Structures are given as C-alpha cells and as structure tokens.
Amino acid sequence: xxxxxxxxxxxxxxxxxxxxxxxxxxxxxxxxxxxxxxxxxxxxxxxxxxxxxxxxxxxxxxxxxxxxxxxxxxxxxxxxxxxxxxxxxxxxxxxxxxxxxxxxxxxxxxxxxxxxxxxxxxxxxxxxxxxxxxxxxxxxxxxxxxxxxxxxxxxxxxxxxxxxxxxxxxxxxxxxxxxxxxxxxxxxxxxxxxxxxxxxxxxxxxxxxxxxxxxxxxxxxxxxxxxxxxxxxxxxxxxxxxxxxxxxxxxxxxxxxxxxxxxxxxxxxxxxxxxxxxxxxx
Length: 282
Fold this sequence. Notes:
By secondary structure, the chain is mainly α. It has one domain (3-276): Rhodopsin 7-helix transmembrane proteins (Rhopdopsin 7-helix transmembrane proteins, Up-down Bundle). Helices cover 78% and strands 0% of the residues. Helix 3 runs antiparallel to helix 4, helix 3 crosses helix 10 (241-261) and helix 9 packs antiparallel against helix 10 (241-261). The mean pLDDT is 80.
C-alpha cells in the first residue's frame, strides 16, 4: 500500500479506536451523565465519523485505484461537514464553561441535556448549510471538476472550488476565533475564582484541549482560506507542502483530543475501571 493511503488508514483506525471509548465509558456510568460530557461525546462521535472517512477513503483508493472527482467530492463533503460541526460544538463547549463559571448555582437549570441536544442539532444544521450552500454555489456557477485527482485532501480547493472553499474557511476561521476569544475571557475570569471549585477545575482540564485546538486549527483555516483566495487553477495538479503540514496537524488534533478529554481524574479513573477493572473510587 502506498504511503499516503497507509498513513490515512493508520490515522483513521487510531482515531476510531481512541474516540469510540469515551462515549462508551460515559454511557456506562451515570455519574458522568453531565452536559459537558455530552458535548465531549458529540465531539468524539464526530471524530469517529472523520476516522471512518479516512479509513474508507484509503481502502477504496488502494483497492480500486479510484481517482474520480465525484469520489473526492463526497469524501471532502463528509470531511468538511465534520470539521464545521466539530468547530461549532467546541464553541458550545466553551460557552458551557462560560455559563458554569458565571452562574455556578443555576448552571444545572440553565444547561440541561435538552439544551445540549438543541445545540448539537444546530451545529449539524449549520455545517450542512455551509457545506451545501458552498458546493451548490460552485456547481451552479459552472465549476468544472478535474478529470482525475491524485490526492483528495491536498486538492480540496480544486475539488470544491475557490468560492465554496472561501466560504467554508471563513466560516470556520470565524468560529475558531470566537472560541479562542471566549476561552481567553474565561481564563481571566477563572484566575479570580477558587481553584478548588469544580467548574474551575474542569475548565483548566479542558483548557489544554482549547490550546491544542488553536494551535492545530488556526493554521489550517488560515492556509485553506489563502489557497481559496489565490484561486488555484483546476488544471494545476501540484501539492503545497505547507498544506500537507496543516492537514496533518488537523488530523493530529482529532487523534490527540480524545486523550486530553480523559485528563481529569474522574474520567481517567472511569476508563481504568471500565477497561482494567480498577477501583472506581480509589
């Protein structure tokens, strides 16, 4: 198997294996049924979808030698949907921590499982609208797909078109920026509160995820937007090495975030109890 397909297969399987454990553990223990964990479960399920896309894409490319632009368009549509939905849910997660820190006593009444469900559905709807609108816009404008594509992920602008890509990356960059600014505000607020507070400790556990999120997703969105604005010609089939780097960074975030979600002692001990039989309350 060629290195690009092999790496995509390995990364996809790793994302699937690491991301699938969190929802299973949360479903097993009732004391983990909180709004914050529901958001994290949603992010893990989106990561599983992305890992499944990587595995399917790599397997079909190797087994059938597919270079069809329609196949690449379907792959990129699923990938960009996952990216947008994940960014919106992470914003909701940051807003959840904002509500918990500002209103610790009334937080259980303000954020319920119904609130999480409505926000997750809104994230999915926004991702569908942004991706569907961009793709339909390009097709109605007469965008011509290339005859063959050597690699779907590094040729996203050529497949989706400049306008659709610009709309996608502007939207995601705006969501990422809003999330990081909200976390900056939360970090300033958390410093003035007691560290032994449950909500403050939970925010600090999630803060490392938000930092990794900014490091990996901001370069990806900025570089993708720059590619779209330069209007790369469809007939040019060359790989931008910096684009390969930021795509790998994004895949790294989807793999590493599942480990960081379990950084709190409560979640780590629940995983140890579920998989190793360790004491749930040492």
